[in-house]
Amino acid sequence: MAFSAEELAQVHAAVVRSIEEQNAAMFASLYTEDGALLLPDGSVVSGRSAIAEAFEAWIAAGFVRQEVEVLDLYSNGDLAVEEGRAAGTFQTADGYVVHSSNYVIVHRRGIDGQWLMHRDIWTAVGETSGSGY
């Protein structure tokens, strides 16, 4: 069974909830045990524990919101590839800063049938500042 747009929307909703609740464990649970974040600076964050630590650092830096625009979703068998644009909003002492990016996420279906993010890579596109979002 293919990874559906509805299932993808549930993943995005869970990401939003984890940000709103500042819940690193919830965020990390959306990834496979050996999942990895491939960051714009070239570093790689591997495994759920390290992903949770990275998320905690983003929250500490003021991460308050993420919006995505899915441009393409391809699914075949136990793998799905999502491509899109994202905007992450951080609240700073000077107001809000939005970091824009292009991203690709590889989702993998586990033995239990659950889809999880496996590889998550994004490139920095730009940054904007403002007084609110």
TrEMBL record:
Domain of life of the organism encoding this protein: Bacteria
Matching entries from NCBIfam families are given as: SgcJ/EcaC family oxidoreductase (TIGR02246)
| Source organism of the structure | Rhodococcus rhodochrous KG-21
- What name has this protein been given in UniProt? DUF4440 domain-containing protein
Q: Which InterPro entries match?
A: DUF4440 (IPR027843), NTF2-like_dom_sf (IPR032710), Steroid_delta5-4_isomerase (IPR011944)
Q: Where is the DUF4440 domain?
A: 8-117
